[in-house]
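>> received
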Amino acid sequence: MKIKLIFTLLLPIALSTVTAMAQDSPSFELAKPSAKQIAFADWEVGAFIHFDLNTFTGQEHGDGQEPPSKFNPTQLDAEQWVLTAKALGAKYVCLTVRHEGGFCLWPSKTTDYTIANSPYKAGKGDIVREFVNACRKHDMVPAFYHTAAFDANATLKDYKGELDLPLDWMTTWGKAMSSAHKNDPGLKERLKKIQVEQMRELLTEYGPIGFMWSDHWNAQDPNGVWRAVTDLAEELQPEMVFMGTDTWVPGNETGHVVYPMWNAVNTVDGTNYSRPAPTKNDITDKKNNYGLLETDVLTGHPLGKFWRVRECTTNSGFHYGGWFWHPDSVKTTTPKKLWEHLDLYYRTVGLGANTIINLPPDDRGLIPEDFVMAAKIFGDEIKERFSNPIAQTNKIHKGDTLVLSWAEPKIINTVVTMENIANGQKVAKYILEAYVDKKWQELKPRNKLIGFKPYNSSPGYQTIGHKKIDRIEPVTTNKIRFRSLESIVHPVEIRQMSVFNCPPVVKNFDSKFPFLSGLESTSESAHNGVKRDKNYIGNHIVINGKTFQKGLMVCPVGKTKKGHIEFNISQYQDVKGITATIGIDDLANHNGSVVFIVRTYQDGVWTDLYTSETLTGNDDGVNIDVDFPYSPSKLRLITTDGGDNANSDHAVWGNIQFKLK
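>> returned
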């Protein structure tokens, strides 16, 4: 096999080492996905059903201390869940059969903390069975969420110390678990037995399961409980896709995937039992030994040994309010807008990853009506965009150049390219061209996405993997050309290429001009993304008790310690400045510290017009009134971490609006 090396990959790979591998190991092969990994990648969209005792208690993670008697859905309909997922366009549906709190949605023999001791169907119910039956009835793949790492009820069942209930996930939850293990040397082995037996029940009593979301996989002692349940899953259901050995998460729960992205990875211990190892430029938390998903941002490695499909979770990508449904008195659980859902699709599936979209049932046991409607609108929109290509290849093409033509010139604005990943991921850089006026011209990418560093908000032509959706500057043509410029192995293999003329993505905001939250930005970067007219859980913005109906929340990003949103305001000739109230939203619980900066641009020069003092979560909002000394073409609002943890700095530009001449 001839190896063609990458010369411009932005990855810390020693080319001399790669050359040695290529020359000294003629049998060297790229990592390749298994048949079940390829099938999983083809599913592309999944649905997450977060339903649990938490739905009735207001908790997100569950401390295992709430009684099963609180679990009492009176209208539960698993078919409604599955049909909503199907309308979404999902191919698989994943139910939280047992979340971190330990409450089981089936009558497990391993614990009394199950629906058998709840009012649901007088203790005779089995929601797991109802769920898998509904999936099979409607031709959907059933999947389970289960975590062997955390079982709060089993961990604290015999705990002798005092508990400050309800336990808080970020503080007292972990301390209580650690204390229980410290004071009970035999606890670890008992927990391992419970998790293994629960896995055995789930994978022997409910027929074939397509996918297992094993939360916090490889979190605690890779030679103990995790290796045991991983081996058991492989033994009982070898065709099941297992999150850990077969898939991996993107490093956040907002539905963002790093780009460029390689599905091949190396692992921290060189075996398939451990998490992917970071490359030099990746972001990872070396203290992360309990499987927290948000701290590892991994690009993958083109010469990695193991194949891991990326699956992007969407705790806040599709809706506000957290993983579980909550009443408005706790958190507002409500869908986001269609344009935000489309952005989620383009930044996950469109960059070669799967996305699993959360559809949380409420305390009736039904997915709320607004979610049902939003799911159908999203599913219909994706079908409209991608069901009828103008032209499409119909066989695998081997070679660095591929031409696709059709009879009559038509306007195109989207090109979808898929690699034949069965033989590995190879493309590192490519170009798309159209034949116009008897010559080839480059198609300029227009892949603007909602993003925050290190996630690429303007991906170009680099990796493809399973699929790359490129939105391009519209052009009228009857012929396009793909050319691979750099690849790991020559020749590359293209499974399919398609062209479309998709309708524009229309962004509708709650606010209107002169409020800046009603204007589309030219670029933005914020932890969890910029929020408009809402805080991070979907409620009104509040600064030290004062509520704001409109505003921008621009939380600094951890790595850069900055957040920003930029606007092209050259069209607004009648603006003379801005007014706003700046401060930290009360959701930060008086934490955080932020500096706010107003910056304008004219004639090639950026000018800082305003810089605040460092504001903390204890401060009242500060009213600012900033005049423009000239008519700027661009406006940039910047927030910088004041020094005590960027992720708590819920920085707000409350009621920010233009002053008009």
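>> The longest strand covers residues 468-487.
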